[in-house]
Design brief:
Helix 3 packs parallel to helix 5 and helix 6 crosses helix 9. This protein folds into two domains: 84 residues, CRISPR-associated endonuclease Cas1, N-terminal domain (Ribosomal Protein L15, Chain: K, domain 2); 242 residues, Four Helix Bundle (Hemerythrin (Met), subunit A), CATH 1.20.120.920. The chain has a five-stranded mixed sheet, sandwiched between helices. A four-stranded mixed sheet has the order 5-4-3-7. Strands 10-11 form a two-stranded antiparallel sheet. The protein has nine helices and 13 strands. It is α/β, with parallel strands linked by helices. The longest helix is centred in the middle third of the chain and has 29 residues. InterPro entries: Cas1, CRISPR-assoc_Cas1, CRISPR-assoc_Cas1_C, CRISPR-assoc_Cas1_DVULG, CRISPR-assoc_Cas1_N. Pfam families: Cas_Cas1. One of its GO terms (molecular function) is DNA endonuclease activity.
């Protein structure tokens, strides 16, 4: 159980949520695990819950405290809200800003700053930890290029220009991605990004990681009452969760890419975990997908100190905290959306 920004996150599995006076009580097999006053909560997010009492749901509905239910893997299930709730105002604000490209650019640039900053951090970390195995001068030059691009992004007010700067940063970073593969180099290599379908083992891993991360961010956005399909950087397209793609930008490198590199460099997967189709697509085997998912869920349990909040949370809660910060910005409770800047 963790309280962040007036939101209670219940991360223990198989917990029943009940009401006792003005308090929420967490029960597991009739044993009381914890209790907390509800009067200063805006929402409760439960992962892998076994149920919630009607009394608790009624209490929360009457007081505009949202109850959000997720699976243990972070898939959004449902959001229980009362008759009157601020989500309508929040979503109207989201739609209004999304319709205006200038307003969208003001928000989208912070997503991109987070992405470039975290890519720069990965290059700097590799330079520090593996100086004898890489071209340090090349990594340092790329890091400086990313710093220069961040300065341009910070003052950019044009959405199309912003996409161009993001593209330049991606090229700079991707040129060195293959150099961060330190083990199994004969079997794992990265030349360029291929998506549909992935044409090599590294791209197969990246595509799977990005799809999981997109689902996590979409669930986090729905959990705070935002529309995961209406974005600022990624424009509307039928069937595409554009806002989820926006929010995950700052986490692509520092979570998904870093996770994939870890799988390869720690030899948790090898060439036998892949199959090649007639059309050239390279895919994970069923058994490899299970290993990937197990490692992904374990990674989400690792603890970090959130750079903005200064509190210890699990990696799995990062998309939820960022979604909450974005909602607060849209409600004008924050002057600016604070991107996730990992250190």
């Amino acid at each position: 159980m963790k309280k962040l920004l007036n939101t209670l996150y219940v991360t223990q599995p198989d917990v029943y949520l009940s009401l006792d006076g003005d308090n929420i009580v967490l029960l597991k097999e009739q044993e009381k695990l914890a209790r907390m006053p509800l009067h200063n909560l805006d929402s409760v997010v439960a992962f892998g819950y076994t149920g919630a009492s009607p009394a608790l749901m009624g209490y929360c509905a009457e007081r505009n405290i949202s109850l959000v239910f997720m699976t243990m893997n972070g898939r959004f299930l449902a959001r229980v809200i009362g008759e009157s709730n601020g989500n309508v105002v929040l979503r109207k604000r989201q739609y209004l800003l999304s319709e205006n490209e200038a307003s969208s650019a003001m928000i989208a640039r912070n997503f991109i700053i987070g992405k470039i900053y975290n890519h720069k951090w990965m290059l700097e970390r590799t330079t520090r930890d593996y100086a004898m195995r890489i071209d340090v001068a090349e990594f340092k030059a790329a890091s400086q290029q990313l710093s220069a691009l961040m300065k341009e992004v910070r003052v950019c007010e044009d959405l199309e220009r912003l996409r161009g700067l993001e593209g330049q940063a991606a090229v700079t970073y991707n040129k060195l991605f293959n150099h961060m593969i330190l083990q199994q180099k004969e079997d794992f290599y990265f030349r360029t990004r291929s998506r549909r379908p992935p044409l090599d083992r590294v791209n197969a891993l990246l595509s799977f990681a990005y799809s999981l991360l997109a689902k996590d961010t979409a669930a986090a956005l729905e959990g705070v009452g935002l529309d995961s399909y209406v974005g600022f950087l990624h424009r509307d397209r039928p069937g595409r969760a554009s806002m989820a793609l926006d929010l995950m930008e700052e986490l692509r490198g520092v979570f998904a890419d870093k996770f994939v590199l870890s799988l390869i460099n720690k030899k948790m997967l090898d060439k036998h975990d892949f199959q090649e189709k007639e059309n050239g697509a390279v895919l994970l085997t069923d058994e490899a997908r299970k290993k990937f998912l197990t490692a992904w869920q374990a990674k989400k349990q690792d603890k970090i100190t959130h750079p903005y909040l200064g509190e210890k949370i699990s990696w799995g809660l990062v998309p939820h905290v960022q979604a909450l910060l974005l909602a607060r910005y849209l409600r004008q409770d924050l002057d600016e959306y604070p991107p996730f800047l990992w250190k």
